[in-house]
Write a structure and sequence with these properties.
With about 140 residues, the chain is an all-alpha fold. Helices cover about 65% and strands about 0% of the residues.
């Protein structure tokens, strides 16, 4: 339960992430925004198949980010970019233009994508202690 013999892992001070990790998280946020915008166009274009394709792409990005960075932040970063892009595309402009209609497919895309983001962030790998022996006496 201890890491490096200095006590429990939760009692260790937090360290700032490395520059490579920050760059990967920023890249995942931008990739999440691109997947959200592309999914908004695809789900409306080919309704049943496009919706499934857009949600599968979002789920793949969320879960892939979590696996690539081996942490929940790898799923939360693209989910943040996805939500920001989708909410931005949902808002109507002063001219009355908007990308999403009021159909059922749009609501399924919004709610389904948010549910997938929560599921993938929950399934993401958390911080694990170092591989030590399971039995203390051996």
């Amino acid at each position: 339960m201890s890491s490096d013999g200095r006590g429990p892992m939760l009692a260790q001070p937090l360290r700032a992430p490395s520059a490579g990790r920050v760059a990967a998280l920023v890249g995942l946020v931008l990739l999440g925004a691109v997947v959200g915008a592309a999914g908004a166009l695809v789900q409306a274009g080919w309704f049943p198949g496009g919706l499934l394709l857009a949600l599968a792409g979002a789920a793949g990005l969320f879960l892939g980010g979590a696996r690539a960075l081996a942490s929940r932040s790898g799923a939360v970063a693209p989910a943040f970019g996805w939500v920001v892009a989708v909410i931005f595309l949902t808002a109507s402009r002063p001219e009355g233009d908007f990308l999403f209609g009021a159909g059922g497919g749009s609501y399924l895309f919004l709610l389904g994508g948010m549910a997938l983001a929560v599921i993938c962030a929950t399934m993401g790998l958390g911080r694990q202690p170092g591989a030590g022996g399971a039995r203390l006496g051996k």
